[in-house]
Fold these 2 entries.
Entry 1:
Amino acid sequence: MLLAGTLLNLVDATGLLLVTCIRILGSSCKLNASLGDTFVISVKNLKVTSAFIEKKKDRANVYCSGTMHRVFIVRVKKNYFRTLGALVKFSENSAILVNKKNVPLGLRIKGPVPMEICFRYPTIGNLSQYIV
């Protein structure tokens, strides 16, 4: 379960490393989020390389520290049960950048993605390395 103020790792190839959650989208009284929910986040830490700067010259301030974006939660530490009784738990809280239609902005997702997410959002499943 993720609350507002939680730190998340981004596992897509956008160059952002660490973000903090600001607001859970979907309901006005929703206090915690789980797998497959959408957050509004603020960028805390990013990985800047020369190739990254050259690619993003026209959009230099898009991914700077303090900007706000939407993310989709892909992995959570909190264990959850599948319909057949299996228990699934990950070692970190991770998310990917998405637009308003939940289409990923990165071109690759590092690490495993649960198959419940892949069935519900096939575009995320196509970009993932592993499906668990």
Entry 2:
Amino acid sequence: VKHMVIFKLSPSAPAAAVEDARATLESLVSIIPGLNSFHWGANSSSEGLNRGYTHAFSMDFDSPEAVLAYLPHPAHLEAAAKLLALIEGGLDGVLVVDI
């Protein structure tokens, strides 16, 4: 399962806090069973269809069950809170899809 999170990073988010949130999310690969990879980046599309979304990350999981176990995991909740504090509009600035 590919878990994709697309978000609108606040222009006032301190670079050090953004890096801390990214590193915390990346560290989940070694903490959460069934989470195999993490990829993060700023939007670089030239299509002009990002609708204000500035960044995204994806995670690859072994199974839908692994995603379900990840969601309430305390390490995920801590990482999500760090990132959410940096997102313009809070949850309104986030889009999540799993494929």
